[in-house]
Every structure is written in C-alpha cells, then in structure tokens.
Amino acid sequence: MPNNIQKKQSVAIIGGGTGGLFCGAILSKEGYRVSVFEQRQTLGGGLHKFTREGVDFETGMHMVGAFQQGGTLNRICSYLGIMDKLSILPADDDCYELFHIGCDQKKYRMPRGAARFVEAMSAEFPDERENIARYIRALYDICDGVKLYNLELYERASQWPSANFLESVGSFINSFTANERLRAALALGNPLYAGDRYKTPAYVHALITKLYMEGASRFAGGSQQLADALSQVIVQAGGEVCAGNGVVHVDVSKEEKSVDHIVTASGAVRRADWYISSIHPSALFKLLDTSKLQRSYWQRIDAIPNTYSAFTLFIIMKPGAFPFFNYTCYYQDDYDMTWEHDAYTDDTWPKGLMCMTPPATTHDAFAEKMVVSCIMNFETVRQWENTATGNRGAAYSAFKRRCEQQVLSKLELVFPGIRACIKSVYSATPLTIRDYGNQKEGALYGVKKDCNNMPRSYIAVHTKLKNLLLTGQNINLHGILGVSLTAIHTCAELVGMEYLLGKINDKNAKF
Prior knowledge:
The protein is α/β, with parallel strands linked by helices. The chain is built from 15 helices and 19 strands. It has helices spanning about 20-30, 70-80, 115-125, 130-145, 170-175, 180-185, 200-215, 225-235, 280-285, 295-300, 395-415, 430-435, 455, 480-495, 495-505, and strands at about 10-15, 35-40, 50, 55-60, 90, 95-100, 105-110, 215-220, 240-245, 245-255, 260-265, 270, 275, 310-315, 330, 350-355, 370-375, 420-430, 470. The two termini are about 15 Å apart.
C-alpha cells in the first residue's frame, strides 16, 4: 500500500539538473506539489544542450547505459511514463568502446555482453582466459550484491555485500592477473569514473563497467530530450519548473533545525514542507548560514576532494567528410598511463582522449559533429578562477587556442588527416564546467570516493536539517544511472523505499 502520510505536501527543489528533475518527476508522480528552481535558462545539468552554428551539442551525457529492455533506467522511465518519448540508439554490439594504445598501435574492441567480453579479451591474452573469466564473475557478483542498482529492496545493514566491495580498484584488478598489460587493459575505462588505483572502491569500477557492457547507448538527437520529458511530468502534475530563477538564499531556523524558506533570484520568498538540494553540497552551503549547522558536519563535506575535470572540444564537421561511428573511442600513448591521465605537465598534456560522434539521427552515415574530451585538473586554470564567462582575458583565450591544437594533434594519431574534415572548433575548460554545471572546481563526477576512509567521503541524502534532503552525483554514484538511483533513495525518504520500488517494478500497475 502507498505511504499516504506525506501526500499532497509541497517540495521545493534547488537545482534543475538531472538529479533534481528525477526527484521532481518521481514525487510529482506520487502526488507531491513540486517546484524546481534552476539558475540557468536551460534545464538538465549534464543533460542540457547548447547550439553553435545551428548544431546542437550535449554538455555531458554522451554515452549512457541501462536503457535496454529490462534495464534499470528503462524501468524507471517506464514507471514515469516517458520511455516512449526518448530516442535511444544502442551502441554497436561488437564494439561499444574502442581503446587505442599508441605505443604498439593495439586496438581493444569491447563487445556487448559478459561472455563476448571474455572471448574478445581472451583473444588478446590467450593464456589469461580463466583469469579474465574470474574477473568478470567477481565484477558481476559485486553488482548483483548492490540491490538498489537492480531496483531491489535492501537492508541498510547489508549495503556492503562482498569482501572486495570496498577493496581499491587497483588491488581488485591486480588480484586476477600478474600480466601488466592485461591489468592496464581491464582498467582502460577509468576516465569514466576518475579512477584512482589506490582509493577508488572496486564497486565503482564494477557498476560502471557492467552498466556499459550490458547496455551502452546514446540519445539520438541529444540528451536534452530526457530533461524535457522529466520536466513535462512535473508540469503535467501541476508542478512548476522555473529556469533562470535559481535559489540565492536558504533561510534556516536554528531553533526548529529546519529550512524555513528559500529566496529565488527574482526575489520571491518560497516555503515548502520539504526541500531537496541537487547542487554540489559546497554550493548549497554558500546559500545558507553555516553557523546554524553543526560545524563538523558541513566542514567535513566541504573538505571532501573532488574528481578531476576536463578540457573538451566541440567540433563541427564538414558535410560528408568524416564517417559516423557508433561507439566511444579512447586513446592513450602507453599502457602505463591508464591511471595517470591527470598527472601531466604543460608539455605532456593531454596524455589521452575520449571522443565520439554524437548521433543526430538513428541512421547517420557521416558525422555532423564530434566531441573530444581530455582530462584536465582545475589547477591548470586556477589563475582564472575569479573571472566570469566571456570576460576572462586574452591570456585565457590564448590558453584555450593552444590546448585546442594540442588536442587536435593527439586526435590526428587516432584519425590521421582529420583536420581536413573539420569546419569549426569550440572548446570548454574546467571553468566552463564549474560555471555552467555549478560543480565545485568543474568536477566531472562529483566528490572522490576513498575506500581507505569511506566515512569521510560518504554524504547521506538526509542532512542535519530535518526537512532538507540531498540528491545528485555527489551522493552515492555519478552518471545518469547513479543520479537516478540516488533520486530514488532521496524520494524514498518521503514515500518509503518498499512502496517506491514496488511501483517501479510492478509491470501491471496502471500509472
């Protein structure tokens, strides 16, 4: 039976990114009166698009997973009634990811499915077949133990289900083989989660790897469609989505230990029964009087290190000049760079890249555009951190032009002659990600997880204020699946986890 205690209560959501919109859509579906407040004119956070020369570009969600039939996101979006509004293009079955190693010109093609992965990797490392198979079994065991990942009810005391769940990812991978190249090959996807071999928990590696191995896909026509669909759920239920009117102040009642009201950029004072913040916790703390919070609480969260950022090229191709490819392509100069993309000098950057040709339609023969992303630390642009978009000065512009040429030179190693196919190039730095995504230091994946001190890097969805909850990529896991599952976790604080999962998993329910 539904939990009716909180029915028809109001919820104000701070931030209209992916997490905020998922929370808003779920709670709207369950009868809450939802208001979403987003500082930017475009909703969606990492889902939103921008346009250059009539060409749309995604800012974040270039490759997604779990939208296949029976997949977790498919089930969540079906429950919300929006799955049929999304245009999803599965990546190629025989190669959803291609890793290109420069030193020996090896190309590792990752095919869909665990069995095919074992076969493909065993062909490259024939003496390691059993070790590769053991690795896959252990990886799947970790994922099977994460009940929420599979939309299954779990006991809070059993969240860490296996002995290697919190093992470092480097130790986890190394336990299956002594072959250094195979170790590097199994970790090639670490730029998808800012992997640190000594600190990143094995479960992060396992969940991300399985996610794409089973259902890598892209949004045909751009990821903004998901943000729009989630917004429509909220509006059609009588809620409101206010773009360009973000929250500028959160008023806290110390006596009540709760949020009293919020103030928006337009000057409006808004009250609600519940408040959910989907922005970086550090950004949230800047909106309220932290003296009304327990000092150890907010200082611990504010001090958690953030993951690295990126420098990104948004390339417009000449018509009919460059073939469309339906997978994600990675390049690095050597195997030993697998864990070292963020350790560079001006002369050695970038150590690698990730690139893709986003699909404009489901039947592209030639690429309209390409997105190329290279890991970059915020320290690289620290000297301009107090400048504003469009007014950063000549030195910053020269820095961007230099970085663009360095990336294009690296891209030429993957696709010789590609410069002749390019019409225009635009670029974004960690400052762009910080300012447009409201992410501290432009962090790609939120805060770092440290398996050696998980309590330090753990942020709960509930806070020290009884009517304020958190959601978004800094809580639990990043990425579109991690953010949507965190939204479920957040919303369950209001409607109950058993009830909510029951609704999502009930194929016969009349939504």
